Q: What sequence folds into this?
């Protein structure tokens, strides 16, 4: 848990200030940022973290897909789209996508056009080590934390001021952070370090 801040709205300027404060505190070497397709955050990420790749949460993407389907739909169309995210690499995922488009485009043209135009944003995680795919293709981890924060703050219901709200949220964030540091190893970062080293070795002859 790196930071907890409060903002009046999720604008580009609010997210930019949040990310800039993280950099001022020493954040560096960000490889990938995973989020939903929030316009303000999406614009702030490349502005402040130009070296980072962006991964659009595939769970939110599948939910957004419902907007492009009729109320009476074949449930298999989204089930098969979800399978794309279980492949070993992006080549397999793209082959499955091509097959999915061929199968469903005559029946759900609106959905297929939308998916084809936007799905690449959800496949960024395939650039990361395979061991990390399960955890970094969605924002599920953050959603679970948000649910816990909501559960604990609903007890209070109304905070007297901003400072009191932040005190509680930050205390809960510290509690969660300490549990993670002491008991949970979510990702083996050595795998990512090795991948980055290999990529640099591959680029070295070309640079020379």
A:
């Amino acid at each position: 848990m790196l930071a907890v801040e409060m903002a009046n709205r999720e604008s580009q300027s609010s997210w930019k200030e949040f990310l800039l404060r993280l950099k001022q505190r020493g954040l560096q070497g960000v490889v990938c940022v995973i989020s939903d397709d929030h316009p303000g955050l999406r614009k702030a990420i490349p502005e402040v973290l130009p070296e980072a790749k962006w991964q659009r949460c595939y769970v939110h993407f599948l939910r957004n897909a419902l907007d492009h389907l009729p109320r009476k739909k074949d449930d298999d169309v989204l089930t098969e789209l979800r399978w794309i995210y279980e492949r070993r690499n992006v080549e397999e995922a793209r082959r499955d996508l091509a097959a999915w488009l061929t199968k469903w485009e005559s029946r759900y043209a609106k959905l297929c056009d939308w998916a084809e135009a936007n799905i690449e944003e959800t496949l960024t995680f395939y650039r990361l080590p395979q061991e990390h795919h399960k955890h970094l293709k969605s924002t599920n981890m953050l959603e679970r934390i948000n649910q816990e924060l909501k559960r604990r703050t609903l007890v209070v219901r109304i905070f007297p001021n901003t400072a009191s709200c932040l005190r509680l949220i930050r205390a809960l964030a510290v509690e969660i952070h300490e549990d993670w540091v002491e008991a949970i190893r979510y990702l083996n970062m050595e795998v990512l370090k090795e991948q980055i080293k290999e990529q640099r070795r591959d680029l070295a002859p070309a640079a020379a």
